Amino acid sequence: MRFGELAALRRRDIDLEGLTVTVRRAQAELQDGRLFDKAPKSAAGVRSVSFPAELLDAVTQHLEHFAAASRDGHLFVGPQGGQLRRSNFRDDWVKARKAAGVTDELHFHDLRHTGNTLASTVGASTRELMTRMGHSSSRAALIYQHMTSDRDRAIADRLGAMIRDGGGGASG
Asked: Which of 83, 106, 126, 151 is the 20 to 30 A CA-CA neighbour of 140?
């Protein structure tokens, strides 16, 4: 997901039984610092994305310990309960990246590309990737291709298998 989509997520956007996250809005920041929610970049940005069952415990733990309390509470909040802001988040991102021993060439948005590259490696079609990412289609080439929730579940299940198997990298 895009940063603004993550910042706008609420508890009600997480379906623990269906293992999905629904993107309904994106956060924007005005020059004066005010935050507001708006529609995603395009109509394709409104979507539900399946996540692997192997992440359910981590998602549940996050909801229990780090998300705002109410059903409409933000999924990601600062240490004092404030909304996520790009300016505040950058320091936390740099700290987490350093703690993980990851180069400073890795930007937060690169995680979006990595996740979708992994989805591609487990068999997601171009159309399925576009749906998961919230991209508008190039109608002529893709108009007759439709992603199904069953296929999205299969993608999430295969990503889960990669997690169980230690990342799915090639072994010698």
From this structure: 151
